[in-house]
Amino acid sequence: MPGQSDYQSKRPKRTPPGLPTSTREYSAKVDPGPYVGIVKGYGDDSGMNRIAVFIPALAQQRKSKETAPDRTELESNTIMVSLALPFYGRTNNKSDSTGSYGKTTKAYGMWMPTPDIDTQVMVVFAEGILENGYIIAYVPDALMLHSVPGIAASSSFKPNAQTTAAGMTPTNVEVPVAEYNKLDPTLKFDNNTAWKNIPRPVHDLYGTLLAQGLEADYARGLATSSAQRESPSNVFGISTPGPLDFDSGLTQTQGLVDDLDKFGYQWPTNRGPGHTFVMDDGDRNHDSKLVRLRTGFGHQILLNDTDGIVYLGTASGNAWAELRNDGSVDVFSAKDVSVHAEGNVNMLADVDVNIQAGEDINLLAGHNFKVETNPAGVEGKGHAHMYINGNMKAFAAGTFNMSSNGWFNITSKEAISVTSTACIYVKSGGGSKYPIKLNTEAGNVAEPPGRVPIYENNWINREASNTYGGKRWAVDGSYSYYTAMQRVPMHEPDSRINQSKPKEIKPWDGTEGVVHISDSST
């Protein structure tokens, strides 16, 4: 067979081998249709992303079969058609200026990617002219709608290494699944509903949900939003094809061929997970009423009416935030949380502000540092308590002032040392009523400070879930997390429990570590 180079000088410039020829011309007229066609080629260089479609009603015998690895088709058996977009528009240009944005045409609208080879499409020919062929709709394969549009979960799945290691079996859980393999000779449909129990491969989304800790969470992780969930369906949404997998080595021969210089080309048969946008009006039990935008990697924004939450989470599960209908807000981060404002940062709590650090708390003010309690002067409130389990140090580069409208009590178990490189002044009110008493009688013992309430919270850890040694995020019962907060957001699956009873702490009665000085006179 002659090589492609032998025909370069004799034929018009053509696209690479196996891709559609963009210079085809059609003169015949046909019935406008519609026709059911099969996508067989794409990638022409017309700039309009036209698609080569095989239409059985207008062509000869199809060259390839779906059960064969060769998915090529004779170019002469196909017709080049364009996509009829759901929405498109453009402005009129003001002049022939080529350098002005304001004067040139602006286009806008919706765009969908070209479907994969062997996808069925609905084609019409405007005014019966073959040159004016348009894809107006897409025809789904029989029963292949389970994962459209929301990658729904199912208990009918074929276990893989991840599900086995995590202890997930089709008898006790649901996991997100892909479509069934219709080339599997063992599959049989005995009745109209048997397709609901078809074992399907586990979707790659399951690995993401495991990392997030949401593999059993229907409010935030698992989805039921499938075109096959009920009939008529209450689900509206879009899912993208996902990126082509060029690394797996799973390929097929596709494209357009002829007897001269078109021989087809190798193309991946697998795609990675795509993005999904779902608007679900809920099932018959009023569950799954939500709007969800989830990327192929697993980042998601979720508006869940059923559970009353707005949820934002990363694919790794290392950061998430949740707003609930009751007004509570949770934020979790496995790393740092940083906030910067070139103006003010204002925080107000009508009840308590609880701050805890596993190590240091550092506060630095460029100018003044002010702390005030009970600005309204409510009687019995406004006390300051400091309990330091270590040394306490204070330094002022200027004057160190401390004053009290009541008693000023200092109590120490050891010696009290007052040192100055200059004078030490001690002065009382004077007279017999306010003398200075040294080692004659006991004064007031300093009152003990109040302690910060401590609450026992669950600790979420990646622990072994079964004898297979698999790892799943779960509550670690061997460890408790003691905090000053009643509610501590953790890595998912967070328990979302507000602890109401603080841990018992032995109160300081003012005697521990204190030497009581008895009254005496000299």
Name a few traits of the molecule.
mainly beta, OB fold (Dihydrolipoamide Acetyltransferase, E2P), 3 domains, 7-stranded antiparallel sheet, 2 helices, 23 strands, elongated
Please tell me about this protein's structure.
The chain is an all-beta fold and 522 residues long. The chain folds into 3 domains: 136 residues, OB fold (Dihydrolipoamide Acetyltransferase, E2P) (Beta Barrel), CATH 2.40.50; 172 residues, no CATH class; 94 residues, no CATH class. Strands 13-16-17-18-19-20-21 form a 7-stranded antiparallel β-sheet, with no helix packed on it. A 5-stranded mixed barrel has the order 1-2-4-8-7. A hairpin with a 5-residue loop joins β14 and β15. The N terminus and C terminus are likely disordered.
Secondary structure tally: strands: 23
**Number of helices in the DSSP assignment:** 2
Q: Secondary-structure element sequence?
A: EEEEEEEEEEHEEHEEEEEEEEEEE
Q: Specify the structural class.
A: mainly beta
Largest sheet: 7 strands, antiparallel
* Quaternary organisation of the protein chains: single chain
Residue ranges: pLDDT <50 for 5 or more in a row?
Answer: 1-16, 513-522
Q: Taking strands numbered 1, 2, ... along the chain, how are they ordered across the largest sheet?
A: 13-16-17-18-19-20-21
Number of domains: 3
CA gyration radius, whole angstroms: 37 Å
